[in-house]
Specification:
The protein has eleven helices and no strands. By secondary structure, it is mainly alpha-helical. It has two domains: about 60 residues, Orthogonal Bundle (Arc Repressor Mutant, subunit A), CATH 1.10.10.60; about 110 residues, no CATH class. Helix 3 packs across helix 4, helix 4 packs across helix 5 and helix 9 packs antiparallel against helix 11. The radius of gyration is 20 Å and the shape is elongated.
Amino acid sequence: MTENAPDPVTAAPPRRSDATRGAILAAARERFAADGYERATIRAIAKDARIDPSMVMRYYGNKEGLFAAACSIDLRLPDLATVPREDIGRALVSHFLDIWENDGVLTAMLRVGITNTAGAERMQGIFRDQLLPVARRVCPDPADAPKRAGLCASQILGMALTRYVLRFPPAVALSGEEMAQWLGPTVQRYLTAERP
């Protein structure tokens, strides 16, 4: 290979199927958020993505498969080992606010989860698989971790519901910093305080 030759791995153009999948997922997220799971249709999602409905079925099989793919989320939770113990609650609230402010997927899932069993199960799975391990690492008794993670989720999802879905004016008016100051101590207590 000559010095100026392009690296075959980095020089390869993106595959057309990757672009098609990306367009389908983006359209599905928007449609599920706007219409909910029940009213969103493969035909409407395909139209939004500017492709034939058969392509959606080819890649995802059915609406359930598409929903699962569209709502696959990595919460990218911070490494709390680097956070002072007394700041864990605030760090988590700030992290979730950043996600909700910059990514509409969780909002879409929350809307769907309110009215649809599959959506609720998907949201439960994300929080169980990603928040529960965090609770296990920081709480005084790992046996209490499921309860503590559930209480944290109730605060975080309640905040998201009032701020991003129902758009209660007082919740919307708070800055992210104010929200973290108010909710951080509650999440902190749920995670690290001794059992009542």
